[in-house]
Each structure stands twice: as C-alpha cells, then as structure tokens.
Write a structure and sequence with these properties.
The chain is mainly alpha-helical and 263 residues long. The protein has 15 helices and no strands.
C-alpha cells in the first residue's frame, strides 16, 4: 500500500512543514500531579511532527487507560490550542501510540468507544486508513483489526470499521475471516461480511460462498448473496441462480435470481 504523510490537512490542503521535535516527558511528574491531557498532546504532537517516541511510551504504561480516554475525548472535541491536528490526524496519532507501545487493550477500547458516535467513528476510520497506508504501521494495524475480527466480543465493531474503510485490499487481507462470518454467523455480522466480500468482484472463493448462501434459511442472507452474484454476473453466478430458482419462495429474492440467471 502507498505511503502517506501527515504533513497536510485531511482535505488535502498543503500545510507548512513541521520541524521534528524530541519528545521529553521529564517535566511531568509521575505522581498525582501529572496532567494526563498535557502528556497526550505532547505525544500526539510528537507523532504529528514525524517523531516515533516509543522509548518514552514505555514510561507511560500505567497511564495508558487515562491516555486512551483523553484520546477518545480529543477525537470528538479537538483542542483549539492544537488547531493543526484535525480529528482524523488525532485518531491516527493516538492509534500509532497504542501500536508502538503494544497497548492492544487500548486500541480495542478506542475503536469500541468511538464507534458509538458518528463524528468520532469517522475520524477513527480516517486514522485507520492512514495507518494502513503507512509501511511502518500497516502490518500491525491489520493484525490488530484481524484480532478484533476473531474475537467474539469485538467482531461486530471490527466489521463495521472495515465497512467504513471501503478498502478492497484490506478485505482481501481478511477474506478468510469474512467468509467464516458470511457462512457461519447470522444477522448484522453476516450481512456486513457479505457486503464486504462483494468488494472482491469475481473472486472464486466469494462466488462459491454466495452460491452456498442462496440456500440459507434467512431470506435476508439469500437476498444479500443474490445481490453479490447479480453484480458479479458470469457463468458461475448464472448457474447458481438457476439451481436455486426452483426452490426459492421469497418473491424479491426470486426476482433477483431471475436477473442473475439471465447472465
């Protein structure tokens, strides 16, 4: 994936180059007087200027939950004192901090909490896109999303974020897991997985999965699968639709299958 920089605004406007700075947290005490908000903005500003402050992050392990909560609030309500850091950029810096420090629990908490509010969710989607485009972070970001996808508790959130990112490349990375959801889950998770797999066009594994789902007991799943086959077209899709037509009872699904069968 191509590497992106953090020098400009989210809308693409060119911003003055930021001078690299060395993160120094020595002025913050480790006692009750530590201002965790100031610490977060120091860390975020360091990332925004191109620094990787991993060594300093090791000193903040005990404050990681508080830092995560500040990050969540900052994404929803950016500080006027740090106007050059847009919500997308704040989210990206916070997620880089969590990946560099190995705070997997914080990564999950941030995604879970921000998913509940659209502006914050959109900012985190933008931040994840940045990370997945960065050579230094893409592998770890994808691994963290995959771990969420494999977790029973976190998989719905991961599926929704993947849907928001709209990245066929990322969907291909997660194809195996998504096929498991499409075949074995029900309801929202299943439908979200089918929608994601539809980005892969005429992928053979996806088409076979959709052909199998035409026999699913839930008409919503059959309808979603038929929509993928209708978009893909081709002989395999047509043959699957013809096999199912004789048994299909739902009028809407049947009408879609007739279109698919025509090729």
């Amino acid at each position: 994936m191509p590497k992106e920089t953090f020098g400009g605004d989210d809308e693409g406007g060119a911003a003055p180059a930021e001078q690299k700075r060395k993160l120094d947290l020595s002025r913050f005490s480790k006692g009750q007087d530590m201002n965790i908000r100031e610490v977060f903005w120091e860390v975020a500003s360091a990332y925004a200027s191109g620094e990787n402050p991993s060594a300093e992050l090791a000193k903040l392990s005990n404050e990681r939950i508080a830092l995560t909560r500040v990050a969540i609030g900052a994404v929803g309500s950016p500080s006027p004192l740090h106007g050059r850091l847009t919500p997308n950029r704040i989210a990206a810096c916070a997620l880089m901090m969590m990946l560099d420090a190995g705070w997997e629990d914080c990564f999950v908490e941030m995604l879970e909490e921000c998913e509940r509010r659209e502006p914050q969710r959109n900012a985190v989607v933008g931040g994840l896109k940045r990370l997945c485009a960065e050579k230094e972070y893409s592998e770890r970001a994808i691994a963290s999303l995959r771990a969420m996808l494999r977790s029973r508790d976190n998989s719905p959130t991961a599926l929704r974020y993947l849907g928001g990112m709209k990245s066929p490349g990322l969907v291909r990375e997660m194809k195996r897991e998504l096929i498991i959801f499409a075949r074995g889950d029900i309801g929202e998770n299943q439908l979200n997985a089918i929608a994601l797999l539809s980005m892969l066009g005429k992928d053979e594994d996806v088409l076979r999965t959709m052909a199998l789902l035409l026999s699913h007991w839930d008409e919503s799943a059959r309808k979603a699968a038929a929509a993928v086959l209708l978009k893909a077209k081709g002989e395999e899709a047509s043959a699957a639709a013809k096999r199912r037509l004789e048994k299909e009872t739902d009028p809407e699904v049947r009408a879609m299958l007739q279109k698919v069968a025509k090729g």
